[in-house]
Amino acid sequence: xxxxxxxxxxxxxxxxLRSIWTWVADDAGEIRADRLIDSLAVATDQLVDLPQxxxxxxxxxxxxxxxxxxxxxxxxxxxxxxxxxxxxxxxRRDVRTVLQSEQ
Length: 103
Description:
about 45% helix; globular; 5-stranded mixed β-sheet; alpha+beta
C-alpha cells in the first residue's frame, strides 16, 4: 500500500487503511486495493482544500466531521496544521461501536 496525500493521518487511521487494503487485496486483488486507497487519498486531498465538505458529527465528537467515499467513512477534524484523518471505517459496520472501542 502506497498512500500519497496532503492530509495528516493518525496512527489509527493508517492502521485502518492498511486493514482495508489487505482485505480488498485478498478479496479482489492488489490492483483493486491500490485503486481504492488512491480514491480515498484523493478524497482526503479534497478535504484539505475544502475542510467543510464533510458533515459534522457532534454525536461522536464536537470537532469531528465525516466524509463519505462509499462504503467508507472518513472521520476527520481540523487542526492548526490542516486536516487530521482520525479513522477510515467501513460504513456497513456499527460505526458507533467501532469509534467507542477506541475511547
